[in-house]
Amino acid sequence: MIFVDGLECSAFDREVFEELRGGGLGCVTVTCGFWEDTTESLDALVRWRDLVRANADLVGVATTAAEIEAIHAQGRTALLLGFQNSSFLSGRIGYVEVFADLGVRVAQLTYNIQNDVGASCYDPVDGGLTRFGREVVAEMNRCGMAIDLSHVGERTSMEAIEHSAVPVAVTHANPASLVPHARNKSDDLLKALAARGGVLGVSGYRNISGEYAATAATWAELVARTADLIGVEHVGIGSDLGRKIGEADLRWMRQGRWTRTVQYGAGSAANPGKQPPLPWFPDTRSFPDLAEALAGRGFAPGEVAAVMGGNWMRFYHEVLPAGRPAGEE
Amino acid sequence: MIFVDGLECSAFDREVFEELRGGGLGCVTVTCGFWEDTTESLDALVRWRDLVRANADLVGVATTAAEIEAIHAQGRTALLLGFQNSSFLSGRIGYVEVFADLGVRVAQLTYNIQNDVGASCYDPVDGGLTRFGREVVAEMNRCGMAIDLSHVGERTSMEAIEHSAVPVAVTHANPASLVPHARNKSDDLLKALAARGGVLGVSGYRNISGEYAATAATWAELVARTADLIGVEHVGIGSDLGRKIGEADLRWMRQGRWTRTVQYGAGSAANPGKQPPLPWFPDTRSFPDLAEALAGRGFAPGEVAAVMGGNWMRFYHEVLPAGRPAGEE
Prior knowledge:
The structure is a homodimer. Chain A is of the alpha/beta class.
């Protein structure tokens, strides 16, 4: 069994990497940026390279599913480099390949504001995937960069699912029919995602999991109901964990540079701040407890393995490049 | 025998690639930029990738000496991606690795104006390689990016030769003792370059080769005198050919964005414009004639092969990465 976390936004350092090892994680997608433009995104990749090099005994960057498995087999945690926005492209279709060649393997089409690709889940009007957005989807397919729709608007998401030649992901969200929230996803969307072979990373993040965030058992109930909705083979974990994220980080995520006003992201004026850690999942060392909770809820061993990481691995085998990056001969 | 041109600044298109094939060139270093910052340099790389893909029957990008030889063996011309400035770094040491991973294999430390790395050959004062410059030299060594000193100032060049752990190149210049010109190199510098195993690409570019530009025979005489000075094993060709370069291109090279005044580069007020093509070397289809001219001047067959490309290949084997790029595991 391999444990995979489909999305974290932690401020990683050696201690947080050690927590990954403490939980026995095989793979985690890290967040390299939210609003950063091309140069700032390259800066982030440079920092990530240096950070990974300095902690190569614990983690390694994976660019293929085979590399994830090899790093896992070495007793290390594979990292997939991801961005929660397409702002690193700065509007250039050619930069998909450039960033893929630099190891980026997951990108969300939009973060919390409409961009040149499409609309976010917080925009009142969603005009769908733009003409540039269609090009980006096709180019991400070609270059083996996974498409993430977690913060993306409904119509843009539906059109991305439709236009993508390979399965796409919602790395960290829940069904809105179980937890009503702008960040969560309609049954229609999740069923379309599943019908094309995609995966949803169920999240215990308090703001989008509501009462299911209470205990590991209630979280397992959320997973069970989600599996009933779209099939257990399309359900994974996307903790959205933000270890060591401070108020300034949270402000950058929520406000970026697009507003001078206070924004609450998935929170609200009544619930403005950083959420306290989940007592049953303070960090990734609790990953084995999640497997236990799923078994306790009645998932069969094969289903537990699928949700804990097997489904993500199937997705990565389908979507990530098989061999060398797209730009090389 | 493999023909190598150490530096061209042509505006490449299919016709110019066909000229490379017409001359049987095994490898040429192309100029991807002069003054461009990081994003503009990525844009240039994207254009180059598309251009090479569209002409893959004629050319291929090489990232190792072995790849040069493989592409040459396929009857195509290997291209080394080069920049004539370090402006693509935008002051970031980490971008050496990033651009190396994207296939860049040659970079000049400065173009025609002092930068954060050092001084150019046209600056009245040359304070030498900066502290950042030393870092850049070491990082280029580590990442297998060849250091080019053609337009670099004397002291900065001497210190780069000294600090580099591997041989460095002057891809396109001549000995100043033979053709006095700010762009040409002192005997001291060339001897230091050769002592460390470097290579000088002798150029027939009119502005820096003077009377030696008259015929293939006078050019061969320039090569012979240069070989007498630093040893034939350190002499290659760097044509500095600018096929299809127009006035706007020339203005960009010479003035960039650093001045509103007219600049003449290696020319002068009395000699301001684009130089007419050399009748004996209008384009690279004349490369075989150069070999003949060298033989006519009395070079032995092994020496002809060394100057025509063998010396550059030895340099590439020493300096370019042996295997996968530096940033990958």
